[in-house]
Design a protein that fits this description.
The chain has 16 helices and ten strands. The protein is of the alpha+beta class. Strands 1-2-3-4-5 form a five-stranded antiparallel β-sheet. The protein has a five-stranded antiparallel β-sheet with strand order 6-7-8-9-10. It starts with a helix and ends in an 18-residue tail after the last helix.
């Protein structure tokens, strides 16, 4: 009796895992050979759920067409390695009690994922499982090559109902992580049973002649390489004579479920999810056809360099322009006249837009420097002198700030105003007032703002009678300034003979340049109100 017990234990210890249970869906049309209710407690197939030899999620048990002992190392044909079995305890002791019967229907322990991304390389890529999609989102591809994959699947299918079930499985997220190798797409797909099915979709790889034609087609145009790097597949590459995209019947699905449909719903779900992979990265399709991304890019680099070298060798060298040395040194040789200079452009061109980069220079400062350099170069072409060389640091800062478009301190110019004001020991408000003066009259306008002076008799003395003749009150003189009695309007005479109008809040000595300078003091004041209604000044302009 003890010998029989030992024999039964040894038989259970070395028994190979059983095949997958069928999905049990109504469209399979096959009985369920793995029904746990038909097992007896003494059967070796009713081992404990935590026994690694009976783990329903093990790839060995999920792959009846690829039997492998659980303790054997993974092979290259199986991207998902099986966990090793723990050592069995020796039944040599005669007092070893018989195994305790377990429940007849143990619950399988299915792991979260059975993928092995640590084994990925140049010719093997593992992609995480896609999340479930909304029920109304039935699109599995956005690109033309992704839709071509879906078309090949649907036109080669023999049962529309299985396609619909597979689409539903894909939308509900039943497809686990997907592994892509040359000629093979593999994943585990969950059906109505907890144990997932091992699904493969095979596709013929391209031979060396096909790859040579494909690489030549890509290297013909540099834009094709750029498109592939941007994860785009040019339509021209699909029409270059290489069967890059699959056609109806080219996809060869295999599934461990008992359903022999072509394809079954599990294989259809994997094909639909593969279309999403192709949509995001066309190099997945190229890997399926037999070449990895790095291998292709290296080959394209070598091919492009060889083509460029051949083109340089075939091109005839251009004749070198010039004269012989004896002719150049001949004292009697007369040089031809210089060509006429090109006309000065009407205005400086705008510089290009500089992108912002982490750790790079400020694009706003680069734009400011480029704009200023273009304006100075344009002035030197037209006048022969640089208008900036004679400016002080403060005047140059005002000029730079005034060159920025806009009429005030906006969000884009606050940084410029703050940096320029700090560099010149001024405040941003001082800089803004100086910018208004610069825009009013340039360097002379800035001088009028900051430097009062005593003008000689003549134009300044004649200004007051002209203002009185225009029914204006008597302006108070001080140096080169005439101020309205109410203290809200002021005229300043510049050294260039122009009158510069200023405004301030009544009772505050806070003068800001306004309007346009004019030779006539009344005309300068009229420019403060384009409508001509100067009621605040106490007069109305004379009628025509």
């Amino acid at each position: 009796m003890r010998v029989r017990d030992v024999q039964s234990l040894l038989a259970g210890a070395f028994m190979m895992p059983s095949s997958d249970a069928p999905d049990g869906d109504e469209d399979s049309g096959l009985p369920d050979p793995a029904d746990h209710s038909r097992r007896t407690p003494a059967s070796p197939s009713s081992a404990a759920p935590d026994d690694p030899r009976r783990d329903p999620a093990s790839p060995s048990s999920a792959t009846p067409d690829h039997p492998r002992h659980p303790s054997a190392p993974p092979t290259d044909g199986d991207p998902f390695p099986a966990p090793a079995s723990p050592p069995e305890s020796s039944p040599a002791s005669p007092s070893t009690p018989p195994p305790t019967p377990l429940p007849a229907n143990p619950t399988p322990q299915v792991p979260r994922s059975m993928a092995a991304p640590s084994r990925d390389g140049e010719l093997r890529r593992t992609f995480p499982a896609f999340a479930a999609r909304p029920a109304d989102d039935t699109r599995f591809a956005e690109s033309w090559w992704g839709n071509a994959w879906v078309t090949a699947l649907e036109e080669g299918a023999l049962d529309v109902k299985r396609l619909a079930r597979g689409r539903g499985y894909a939308q509900e997220g039943h497809v686990d992580a997907i592994t892509v190798t040359p000629g093979l797409v593999l994943a585990y797909v969950r059906g109505s049973r907890p144990r997932p099915y091992r699904v493969q979709v095979r596709l013929r790889t391209l031979d060396d002649a096909d790859w040579t034609r494909f690489l030549d087609a890509v290297a013909e145009r540099p834009g094709h390489i750029a498109a592939l790097l941007d994860k785009e597949m040019p339509q021209y590459l699909a029409d270059c004579g290489v069967p890059l995209l699959p056609g109806p019947g080219d996809l060869d699905p295999h599934c461990s479920c008992p359903d022999r449909g072509h394809p079954c719903k599990h294989a259809a779900a994997l094909c639909y999810q593969t279309a999403r992979l192709l949509d995001a990265d066309p190099f997945v399709l190229l890997l399926l056809r037999g070449r990895g991304e790095r291998q292709l890019l290296d080959a394209l680099s070598r091919l492009s360099a060889a083509r460029a070298a051949r083109a340089a060798q075939e091109q005839q060298p251009a004749p070198v322009a010039g004269v012989r040395a004896t002719e150049a040194l001949d004292p009697e040789r007369r040089l031809p006249p210089l060509p006429a200079p090109l006309p000065v452009p009407p205005h400086p061109e705008q510089p290009p837009v500089y992108p912002a980069a982490p750790g790079g220079p400020d694009p706003f400062a680069l734009d400011q420097l480029a704009t200023d350099a273009a304006a100075r170069a344009h002035a030197m072409l037209g006048t022969g002198r640089d208008p900036v060389t004679e400016l002080t640091l403060w005047q140059d800062a005002v000029r730079l700030a005034a060159a920025r478009p806009g009429s005030g301190l906006t969000a884009a110019t606050r940084a410029l105003y703050a940096s320029l004001a700090a560099a010149t020991d001024r405040t941003p408000a001082d800089l803004a007032r100086a910018v208004a003066a610069w825009r009013q009259g340039g360097l002379e306008g800035l001088t009028v703002l900051e430097e009062p002076w005593d003008p000689p008799a003549g134009r300044f003395d004649r200004a007051r009678p002209l203002l009185l003749a225009a029914d204006l009150p008597a302006f108070r003189p001080w140096h080169n300034r005439l101020t309205h009695p109410r203290g809200h309007v002021q005229l300043r005479l510049g050294r260039d003979g122009l009158w510069y109008p200023y405004e301030s809040e009544p009772g505050h000595d806070d003068w800001w340049p306004r309007g346009t300078p004019d030779l006539d003091p009344v005309g300068a004041l009229t420019g403060l109100d384009p409508a001509g209604a100067l009621d605040d000044l106490g007069f109305a302009p004379p009628e025509a």
